[in-house]
Amino acid sequence: MTTRTHGTMLGRREDLGRYAIFLVLVGIYLAGLAASSAFGDPKYLFNMVRQVTPVGIAAIGVTLVMILGGVDLSIGAVISLTSVLCASLMAGDAANLHSAILLTLAAGLVIGAMNGALIAFSRVSPFILTLGMGVAIVGLTQIYSGGTAKGIVSPGFREFFNHRMGGSVPVLTLAFFVLLGLGLLIEKCTVFGRQVFLIGSNRSAALLSGLPIRAVTMATYSLSGLFGAFAGIALLARSGVSSTSAGQGLEFQVLAAVVLGGTTFEGGRGGITGTLAGVLILVIAFNLVNIGGLPYHMQLVVMGTIIILASALHGWLSRTSS
Amino acid sequence: MPVLEVSNLSKRYSGVAALSDVSLSATAGEIHAIVGANGAGKSTLMNLISGTVSPSSGSISLDGKNVRFANPQAAQSMGIATVYQEFSLVPQLSVARNVFLGREPRNRFGLIDPARLMADTRALLSKYKIELDPAAEVESLSVAQQQMVEIARALTYASRVLILDEPTAVLSLREQENLFSIMRRLRDDNLLILFVSHRLEEILNIADRITVFRDGRKIETLAAAGSSISEIVNRMTGRERALPKQPAPVQENAESYTIEYKSSGDPQTIRIRCGEIVGIAGLVGAGRTGFARSLAGLSGRNGAVRIERDGKTLSLKSPRQAMREGVVYLTEDRKRDGIFSGLDLVANATAAALPDLAQGGIRNRRAERDRAASMLERLHLVAASLSLPISKLSGGNQQKVVMARALLTHPKLLICDEPTRGVDVGGKAEIHDILRGLAAQGTAVLVISSEIEELLSLSHRILTMRDRRFVAEMPARQTSEKDILMAASGAAPAKETS
């Protein structure tokens, strides 16, 4: 093949499009630094990441689902359910710790697999199906818990995750990075990850190319459920108390992070690296309005505006570079 | 006086020159053909003139006045109409709505006036003798009919220049003839018609002047009268054209496939031996693609198929199963189910062979890249980089990538549906060579093509379809274009194959 390489020029321009989101991230971080010197303190930064860990973990699985061309609106409900489930399985006893975590992860996986199977074998749109599933799971969570906080975490559970290694890096933050690495491994290094991109890019072409569309669909939603369960456990570790509505509305933060990161609803493009940037932009925005001392509801308005601006800037940067 | 004058026009994409320093002038009342190999810059030039992309340098003038189009609408409002290679129709809307999209006749409340819309469309279609139902939904139409809708839409605002980018690639013979008469009529109305095509015969037949492009540069403008195909090809390729090759003889004792196809009427049986190239001819709508798709495991409304390889029945319930049995289908509609548009060439080429290139589900990027590169090299693909998204390639190069994908699965029975549509002369010969090479190595190859000349030079045998049935079987060496056309159109009392 006649490969003409027009190295640097081509490389640089394409990279600009791909990394536009990171420019946005750097921009908003610098804005934070200007607003408060706290943004220069590693301890504060790690704490910030710890704060966003549940959303970040859930966003890993949802990114894969959206690359596939689907969406998972049940993720918030899954986080709530698994967080309550984990707490009550622990029942305040250290002996239950490992079994509780494993059972919780299994529950997330099963819910994800149900989403996946229903989407793969019926023609219901993922949007409606996962929305319905989410509503049903919220109901189940309420019935299971009797509508109030239920269960007590095992002793040692919170202490472990909130321990700061070397005095500054919380284990929970570290766990987030480990799961992020796992997600990246799945996305970039496995046949499955590549097939997710192919199916999301053109389902008909994937079908003709002999790709196992149903199996990949089920596996992707299962992963989303599994990461949802990890997120539920992370939420429990962060707050220490199980609340039946802990994950309520989190699906929107997750979606905002994923879309900000450059993964689109059309599928076939994006990735977990971008999602990480999206998650960080969200949490910096949140902390900025917090530092600004705005009343809570005003904070929401400003945060929404920041999301829109960041997204517009991202779109503009990717357009001008291509 | 030239209606269109292009001076020193250049366009660079990411530093790669798609068009370099092109000057060209064309007059009203002429059919001006633009020819060149894939990637020669034809489509880029058309995109510049139609305002789809803006030039890196140089200028375009219309009626002696310098113009700079901010977008395609600006060019349209100046009377430059374009029929694109890729369809830009809204599939869910009717023919009439598509023809007048954005310029629908309004009633006094400012709403679309459906009665006038229908009447206007009907008048336009009958003026140009285009046989289409204005009320039909575009998605229910064949690819050829959709192309005619596209042309009808352009006719509604073509007042100075009509740009046709490979308009005949998907048309049946009758529609082609009709398009040519429309083009002649518009020429007589003093329009300039810019016409991009790979079919040199039709260009010599219809064009007044021909401009040849190669590697983004204009080579020469010739008068069509007095030019020959070989002259043009030599300028396009910069080298002499080789003689057509013959397919290798089929081994006497080769294994064979027996295919029983039932779609309309009684089931019919056809056979193809390993190492054999069988052409399938027929007019658009004869059911060739339906047959091919059902072989590929997409049965349903395409009809039922049963296939045996040396007496052993193969199960083809899905493309995945078909592929496992070595039966691979190469689509005629790249955009719909051929390319993964946002993904790079490696991802596109290796899509079907990923598990073979991996170990325990973990990808081996190096193996993917090497295999894709060597296969694309075999197909003589020219691209700036393997990391380019496939959508940046020309149609012919996209076809090569999709073909590489099929070949990387090591097909035993390869079904190629219009494998050279939109591919230039050089690329066509290369694809033919590849198919002959595959057959020589024992692959059974079914080729569907609307270009009978292609089937005649490529295949051992030619089957002709009409109304979803096989109506004739002829050895390629002892038949002519005319025989096949007669069988395909039902003009001759064709003998059905058993």
From TrEMBL, chain A:
The keyword Chaperone does not apply. It is found in: Cell membrane. Signal peptide: none annotated. It is a multi-pass membrane protein. The chain crosses the membrane at residues 20-39, 59-88, 100-121, 127-144, 165-186, 218-237, 271-289, 296-317. The keyword Transit peptide does not apply. It holds the Pfam family BPD_transp_2. CDD domains: TM_PBP1_transp_AraH_like. Its main location: membrane. Keywords: Cell inner membrane, Cell membrane, Membrane, Transmembrane, Transmembrane helix, Transport. This is ABC transporter permease. It comes from Pseudohoeflea coraliihabitans. The lineage of its organism: Bacteria, Pseudomonadati, Pseudomonadota, Alphaproteobacteria, Hyphomicrobiales.
UniProtKB/TrEMBL annotation, chain B:
Keywords: ATP-binding, Membrane, Nucleotide-binding, Repeat, Sugar transport, Transport. InterPro entries: AAA+_ATPase, ABC_carbohydrate_import_ATPase, ABC_transporter-like_ATP-bd, ABC_transporter-like_CS. The lineage of its organism: Bacteria, Pseudomonadati, Pseudomonadota, Alphaproteobacteria, Hyphomicrobiales. PANTHER family: CARBOHYDRATE TRANSPORT ATP-BINDING PROTEIN MG119-RELATED (PTHR43790), GALACTOFURANOSE TRANSPORTER ATP-BINDING PROTEIN YTFR (PTHR43790:SF9). Pfam families: ABC_tran. Belongs to the ABC transporter superfamily. Residues 4-240, 250-492 form the ABC transporter domain. PROSITE patterns: ABC_TRANSPORTER_1, ABC_TRANSPORTER_2. This is Sugar ABC transporter ATP-binding protein. It comes from the Bacteria. GO terms for molecular function: ATP binding.
